[in-house]
From TrEMBL:
Species per Swiss-Prot/TrEMBL record: Alkalibacterium gilvum
Coiled coil: none
Name used for this protein in its record: Aldo/keto reductase
Pfam family, one: Aldo_ket_red
Binding site for substrate: H109
Amino acid sequence: MMDKETFTFNNGVSIPSIGFGTWQIPNEEAYDSVTMALKNGYTHIDTALAYKNEENVGKAIHDFDVKREDIFITSKLPANIKGYDETLEAFNKTMTHLGVDYLDLYLIHAPWPWDDIGKECTEGNIQSWKAMEALYKEGKIKAIGVSNFEIKHLKPILETCDIVPLANQIPFYIGKDQENLLAFCKEHSIVVEAYSPLATGDILNLPELKEMAEKYDVTVAQLAIRYCLEKDTLPLPKSTHEKRIIENKQLDFKIFKEDVTKLDKIKDVRK
């Protein structure tokens, strides 16, 4: 049993404190992977329209013997889609793919298109946010948020919104702690979700992590995912291997403060 089973958004909605990520899992593998996750106790599944696997993510959830209200489902508005009507259209596609009548969390996937990173899209993001606020008020989404937003992207939303973003899903792992962004989100009661908590595998062979993992008698992956929780972020590990899916959720240990400090000092291996 982990010490923190859920995070709570500032609207009172609870989200399980570890999610199963499905980024880079092809649609044909998503059914088996999500089924394995559900079978091994995951109740929080994260997908996106851009992942092109929503159909099999939804099918796995439907086919598993679980009530809809006992599963937390996140999806995302594609990064290249900006605007009010465009957002509503994309949302409806996601709902059709997943086969559900509401989403637990819906995020703007990025502040700019992935093929034009840095593009100025402030007005488009504001209009997309207004559409998401409308869907939220209609009860079609329990919580709304953003992903990959830096402070400069969050500020225009905060200045114009009726509903403050409840979550910001960002790359967060040992070596990339995003301290300033984390502090800003905390100040505005925005839950930070940590995607790629293993740096897509790039940190798994670091000698200092191997040594520390041995000290705690855990895997490097478990150490890295637990680090995210120690930093008050919600990790979204993903795997297609059942052994790792199981291990990634076995996090009922604490990292000593002095060891968290050591991990904070590690340089980003992906720069």
